[in-house]
Here is the input.
Amino acid sequence: MSVPLQTRDARRESLLAAADRVVQRDGASASMASIAAEAGITKPILYRHFGDKSGLYAALAERHTDRLLDALVDALTAGGTYRERVHRTIDTYLSVIEQEPQVYRFLVESEEAAPAKGPVRGFLRRLQELLAAGISHELRLPPDDLRAGLWDAAILGMVQAAGDRWLELRDCPREVVSGQLTGLLWGAYGSASASSAG
Here is the structure.
């Protein structure tokens, strides 16, 4: 007799919740064995629900990246000037990795999760598309202008790299980092260079 779809979905969500707890605790070192133990089942049962190891990690990655993208879209599309929206979006990203550093490390560092990097790449691609559309709109760029595609990748890379550094060192408050990055985007480097040259 087959298990009703609703029951299977509920069981899957229960297993993902158990996996989430392990990831919150262990970060990139989270293993299938520890997830199965947390859920009170054997590894074969875990495999039965997700196909294989990469299936479980892909489901976890999708859950977290979708939530982060929703938060970033909300921040970027809320009211205020473009600078205020960019600052709020950068601060939202930093806030998420600050609140869940182990989840972030799981998503970007876990070697075991390497086959499941697709959802993370998909998240980055969607975020770049969102930034490119925003840049094109704000600057009223023609469709064939290269700047939106180049700048969205540069901004995303800058924020991610700076976030990695800050998460490791924690040498200043989050608000300082988001303010500095926003200032850099608004010409702080050029202003500082001109001031030093003068």
